[in-house]
Amino acid sequence: MKGRHPAEAYDKVFVLRLGHRPLRDKRITTHVALVARAFGANGFVMEVCDDAVISSIKKTIATWGGKMEITCGVDPISYVSSWKSEGGEVIHLTMYGIPVDEIVDVIAASVKRKLIIVGAEKVEPVYYSLADYNVAITNQPHSEVSALAIFLDRLYRGRWDISYEGARLRIVPSARGKKVMRIERGEADK
Amino acid sequence: MKGRHPAEAYDKVFVLRLGHRPLRDKRITTHVALVARAFGANGFVMEVCDDAVISSIKKTIATWGGKMEITCGVDPISYVSSWKSEGGEVIHLTMYGIPVDEIVDVIAASVKRKLIIVGAEKVEPVYYSLADYNVAITNQPHSEVSALAIFLDRLYRGRWDISYEGARLRIVPSARGKKVMRIERGEADK
Q1: What is the pTM of this model?
Q2: What phi and psi, each to the nearest 5 degrees, are found at residue B181?
Q3: What is the ipTM of this complex?
């Protein structure tokens, strides 16, 4: 489970969550953030701040390890524009886009920093033009949670060999039941 | 986009959603159901009935086509037991299980009907023993939505070439913006 974090090949692979209605979207946005962490993004940016979401991600990181830069309350259009002007590229996940398997090799081959935009219900048209790639994970409606997981899976060729440094707990995969290893302080980064 | 539905290789690939707290889980359960449809399950079974979730899936099917058997209000332990006694096999998705890439070839090679169990927050220990396979999609916490998508993706080797019969709308993939084709009545099943 050791090795480079897969995002390091691009320096940064960040996820930008557009919109967020705290009452309605709390759990979906939390799941998006957890997917970002588990499938190898190293940053999570929210347009709207929600303490419940952020505390939930931080708690996960404290227990299960890993590093992720967390930011909230950004103006998303400025954020995207700065990302591009600093040499990064922008991938917008949308069911209207180009099928992921047709385009992901091009995206994976470019060494640029990657910002993956994940929208809430309605995404303003401007993002379709700002994005370098509008990418579809199936052209059917499903979920930003699954779309992000499949996109990161394809970007990294299914290699989620992430080293979760600082973890306090680690699962020992098992055919039946739950086996969890508690990691003592000092051993955490081994 | 035509051809057999991928679930047909096994006759049935059903998803069983355990638990469901209507206020808290409405959107997550809806996303689980949409993932089931978009990634090639042909049945969705809920322990707890929730009209909002069911109407949302039915609306999606009416617009975007496809077929999915929808059932709710089942006793999940009896349901799982019947599934097994009728010759089907049961896959429980859990972060404590065996990594999907180690076990999916065995599952894909067996022609048995497949019931995929997707839990809400806490899953009773009995399911770990009832399941033929406890399968982990990463051993990290993320989401039942992404876990189901990745599992179905692996089961079908990334082939989501589902024929969505009866669709009224179909997306034409595009690099920018949204292109949607309206399908006239009578043409729908072509």
Answers
A1: 0.96
A2: -100, 130
A3: 0.95
